[in-house]
Amino acid sequence: MTALLADDIPVDTSLFTRIADDIYSQGYSVQEYALPEALANALFLQNNAMSEAEFQAAGIGRSTDFQENSFVRRDEICWIDGSSAAGADWLSWTAQLKQFLNRNLMLGLYSFESHFAVYQPGAFYKRHLDAFKGQANRVLSLVTYLNPDWQEADGGQLVIYTSEEDKTGIRVLPKFGTVVVFLSEEFPHEVLPATRSRSSIAGWYRVNGTIGDVIDPPQ
Ligand code: OGA
Ligand code: MN
Predict the structure, then answer these.
(1) Which atom in ligand 1 lies closest to the alpha carbon of residue 200?
(2) Would you say residue 131 has pLDDT above 50?
């Protein structure tokens, strides 16, 4: 069944079903040609239209413990707040996916944060986890790619390791419209250097960690 979001972005429930089945059975999902084409094209144009000034060197940690560490990651990022039409459509599509996964997998996903990321040639993001066990924060990671005509020889693979011990991993080419979803606490992963500039959107669903009057997510 296909429903429509604002601006005619289709919601492909068969795609959402494949993602949910994969998350349930193996904890991660890699779907090629998955992002709705109109949405992918709009995000691609938005990403290209943004000036260098809008991107900032990515860091590690949030607010008070934020650190830039160029040994770990060399990408540049810009958070998506929905003020552009493409950003707003992206947030509605990711909200539809959240609702679907909550209904089908009972994940209790609550908030979502995401950013555009550009890796210049040679840039990388060393092996890392997006969340740490026991710190109820990021539950599910979502990545999509905005790189037309990406070839194996261009590099820039996302390598997903299926356990702490896994040294080989699963390699994903950052091809236009590929969508990757994985449990944030379970899968170490890294981004290999590319020979071309590599554009992606990385996002995270979080559970509601509000305790007392400490509001989650942190501002
Ligand atoms: C991240 C990340 C993966 C990618 O931003 O945390 O792992 O393929 N990105 O861009
Ligand atoms: Mn990551």
Answers:
(1) 10
(2) yes
